[in-house]
Structures are given as structure tokens and as C-alpha cells.
Design goal:
mainly alpha
Length: 77
Amino acid sequence: MKTDTKRTTIYLDGSLHRALRIKAAETDHSISDLIGEAIRLSLAEDEIDLAALKKRRREPSIAFEDVLKELRKNGKI
């Protein structure tokens, strides 16, 4: 075990835990590895989203209600 790792307890739905155990066995990875990778992927997605938001921060905001009105006006909905 790496020295910089921390131990934690999580609670999973029984069927989710079973699926995770099966995947771990089939891929020869630990449950901890699979959960860690899922968390890293989720955080990477957040980082991408935040970068896109930062890039578009100067764009004008449009209220959702206005978008719906425009779609109705144009016969799209």
C-alpha cells in the first residue's frame, strides 16, 4: 500500500457492491483501485467543465425561460 493513501469507509447498495466485486475479480484490480479510478475520472470531468465555464464566462447569459419562448415562437416546441 502506498504511504500517501488514506483509509476511508463507504457504504454501497448491495447490488452495486456485488457488481463492483465481480468487476474487480474479472479485471484483476482491487475494489479500492476501481473506486479510486472512478473518483479520478469524476474529478477530471469537473476540471474540464470548470475550464469550459472559465473560457465562456464573458458570454452573455440567456434565461431559460427566454430560450423556451424563442423555441415556441419559432415552432420548435
